[in-house]
Amino acid sequence: MILIVDDDPAIRTSMSLLLRQEGFAVQGTSSPQETLNFISRQTPELIILDLNFSIETSGAEGLQLLAGIKEIRPHVPVILITGWGSIELAVKGMKLGARDFITKPWQNSYVLQTIRTLLHLEETPRPSSTRQQLDQHYAFDSVVGNDAQLLALLDTVGRVAATDAPVLITGESGTGKELIAEAIHQNSKRKGRPFIKVNLGGISSTLFESELFGHVRGAFTDARTDRAGRFEMADRGSIFLDEIGELDLSSQVKLLRVLQERTFEPLGSSKSRTVDVRVVCATNRNLDEMVQQGTFREDLFYRINLITVKLPALRERAGDIPLLAEFFINNLKTIYQRPSLQLAPSAAAWLKTLPLPGNIRQLKNMVERTVLLSRHNVLEVADFQKNMHPEKPSFSRQTLPEVGSITLEEMEYQMIRRAMEFHQNKVTKVARSLGITRFALYRRLEKYGITYESED
């Protein structure tokens, strides 16, 4: 049974009709006291709560009621209803334990989608699954490993994939966030629909609207034809927003609006378009810290992380390193037509001892480089060691500037300028030497006004 809490009988009636048509049992209450009395006697599966009552428009009474609900029924999911101008109020509610929020006027399909998602997530999880059991239920062919952390993560991914819940994937660079995003899509009801990847670190603020929402002919000087944006391309499918932590604040506002209202306007058009997408985001940055620092919007943070999946670093599941290495070698056998390639047991054991700060990406590059440069079909420790890059220099206290003498931003600027000079403005080489993606480097070059060649 779903409980609708709203002092407006018209809201309760319209919401009740919508839910009953979809087969849900519904009850309604119109005041805080009536609501608390009701949940003291009965336990609803889910509560839809309007934050504003007729005698109070600040939302304080609604937040107080939410706190009372969570005290009596802490495990019952609550969806808040608020206006677009009161999203800050909804964020306060999320901190008090609400699971999601919708804005007025709502879209019926989005309300139903949100309700089904939360009810599905409340289902009792299965006991811990083995890799074999997971592979029987889900399509995880591209995700390699048997580590307990990874299996628990994949179990969560499999359960969440069946819903339309927004997912935030976190973890260090190279841990396989894109693979997990693809796995979410491939195990969802949208798997036959588009899966659109967007690297937000590679899109400047001036191109953000055109890239994500499209544009119409004549919207700007070079807009000679209409162009569909990434959200329109992903309609009825999934969109993967990688490096979301790189997005500037003005672009965050525009993204929040389309995620909240499921509508957008192409650049240069006054006609709104509706979109139905499953949103998966990823970042290697600490968004909690960015929210505290004011560089990432709190309301957007709560909108994208109904479910958070944190990928372990490769060093935290070292037992999977030989499996990954063998997986890469098996792929390279076909690519380079070397069917006898294999990994020596001693090399497998040695690889497990490496720190691999670049995670799976670094391991893949190391294996491929060794295969390319070694003439042996059985790869030994010596083959890997011979083809490894020199160790990065360590920095002593004397080689770094004194604390307070330079800001982190100034240091970043100087390092980028030095790398650009050293590599003769070749962006790919500069990005590799700095340990960041080309797209992340482009944003920093634009930020600091450093000129560069558009082609490497």
TrEMBL record:
Keywords: ATP-binding, Nucleotide-binding, Phosphoprotein, Transcription, Transcription regulation
4-aspartylphosphate modification, residue list: D50
InterPro entries listed in its UniProt record: AAA+_ATPase (IPR003593), AAA_lid_NorR (IPR058031), CheY-like_superfamily (IPR011006), Homeodomain-like_sf (IPR009057), HTH_Fis (IPR002197), P-loop_NTPase (IPR027417), Sig_transdc_resp-reg_receiver (IPR001789), Sigma_54_int (IPR002078)
Lineage: superkingdom: Bacteria
UniProt xrefs under Pfam families: AAA_lid_14, HTH_8, Response_reg, Sigma54_activat
MF GO annotations: ATP binding; sequence-specific DNA binding
Response regulatory domain location: 1-119
CDD domains hit by this protein: AAA
GO biological process annotation, one example: phosphorelay signal transduction system
Domain Sigma-54 factor interaction: start-end pairs: 143-372
Name of this chain's protein: Sigma-54-dependent Fis family transcriptional regulator
Originating species: Arundinibacter roseus
Lineage, opening ranks: Bacteria, Pseudomonadati, Bacteroidota, Cytophagia, Cytophagales
